[in-house]
Write a structure and sequence with these properties.
heterodimer, A: 4-stranded antiparallel sheet, 0% helix, globular, B: 4-stranded antiparallel sheet
Chain lengths: 114, 116
Amino acid sequence: DSGVTQTPKHLITATGQRVTLRCSPRSGDLSVYWYQQSLDQGLQFLIQYYNGEERAKGNILERFSAQQFPDLHSELNLSSLELGDSALYFCASSVEGGYQETQYFGPGTRLLVL
Amino acid sequence: AQTVTQSQPEMSVQEAETVTLSCTYDTSESDYYLFWYKQPPSRQMILVIRQEAYKQQNATENRFSVNFQKAAKSFSLKISDSQLGDAAMYFCAYLETQGGSEKLVFGKGMKLTVNP
């Protein structure tokens, strides 16, 4: 158990819908990262937050957004869902972010868009 | 941008034997970090081992060790005394750092089968 929690574990929804994925980092970690794992794209970085502020953006679609709250949990919002958004979404956390630290991953949220 | 290549999509090994998983990467940086993560059927991403480029000594964690060849940009993982529980996808990753931001760049992964 990495100490990073993600909810829900599984999510099934329809095209055009909007969903919210939630992540709680390890105790004491200030930085949160979101990754997407799909069959065709592999594991890709989406976005990084540090203590509530966006630090880095990767291949994140405009339909996707994220935020980190004062209690340091983070949410990834996916809207206007398409079939191709079906994937495993991981959250990871590290103490600071930007200091070459190890990122510890949560168990992931498996999203299926029908 | 940095790239990570795992050229072998699948490998198999007999229980108790040794297997080596290969990984190459491309970077112009001199100081960086490399990781191996394991993803068993549960899909959880589990850290296996971490290597700091400025350290000449290869990292080891129990049965797992790396062969880090900085000049060749090669970072292979050796698993000794393979166990059934080692069966998983293994991902090599490069930690890309820029101005206070960080992200992991992953290879495509390699599926390891352990035969009893």
